[in-house]
Amino acid sequence: MSRRSIRAYKPCTVARDTMQTILECGINAPSGMNRQSWEVRVVDNPEVMTEIVQLMAAGNPDMKAEAVKGCFRDAPVMVFLARDPSYPFSAYDVGLLSENIMLSAWSMGVGSICLGMPVRFIQGNEACTPVLEKLGFSEGYEFCLCVGLGYALEDPDAKPRDMSKVKFID
């Protein structure tokens, strides 16, 4: 109940051993028939992240570079997730994987945010093919989600939830 989407981070990365534990928890999420129909790429090097942002900005000339950079919320670690679209439930598998990543990160004092905007900038944009090449997903896999990670500079309150959308069926 305490995990929140973090949109402001301290300017330091998350140690690789901490990330290794977070990712191990992530990939232990359930997946349909244990297919593990995802691939994970982690960028924790600021220079590589800057290169990705520059490639995205070049592929989206109508957007200012600051707007493209902003879609990552300045998270010092970015986890790029891809799915195997040949398996019809791979999107659910990636959802479970990403939630495990975010919950395990929070349990270790690391904030997170789930991001779809980078997918919108990259996926289906031929000019952004160099970004996908840089990430190196396997043939046939489809980039579908990002999770930003880092140490929080904020402690946002929970937004209201509508329990009327939950019903018990008798």
Major sheet details: 4 strands, antiparallel
Order of strands, main sheet, comes to 1-2-4-3
User: Can you give the helix content as a percent range?
Assistant: 25-40%
Q: So how many helices?
A: 6
How many DSSP-defined strands? 4
Average pLDDT confidence is: 94
Strand content: 15-25%
Radius of gyration: 17 Å
**Cα shape:** globular
Termini separation:
27 Å
Question: What is the ordering of alpha helices and beta strands?
Answer: HEHHEHEHHE
How is the quaternary structure best described?
A: single chain
Task: Give the SSE layout.
Layout: H1 16-27, E1 38-43, H2 46-59, H3 65-70, E2 77-83, H4 90-107, E3 111-115, H5 117-122, H6 129-135, E4 142-150
Antiparallel strand pairs: 1-2, 2-4, 3-4
Core attributes:
globular, 37% helix, alpha+beta, single chain, four-stranded antiparallel β-sheet, 170 residues
Tell me what you see in this structure.
The chain is α+β, with helices and mostly antiparallel strands and 170 residues long. Helix content is 37%, strand content 16%. The chain contains 6 helices and 4 strands. It has helices spanning 16-27, 46-59, 65-70, 90-107, 117-122, 129-135, and strands spanning 38-43, 77-83, 111-115, 142-150. Strands 1-2-4-3 form a 4-stranded antiparallel sheet. Helix 1 (16-27) packs across helix 4. It is globular. It starts with 15 loop residues before the first helix and ends in a 20-residue tail after the last strand.
How would you sum up this structure in a few lines?
By secondary structure, this protein is of the alpha+beta class.
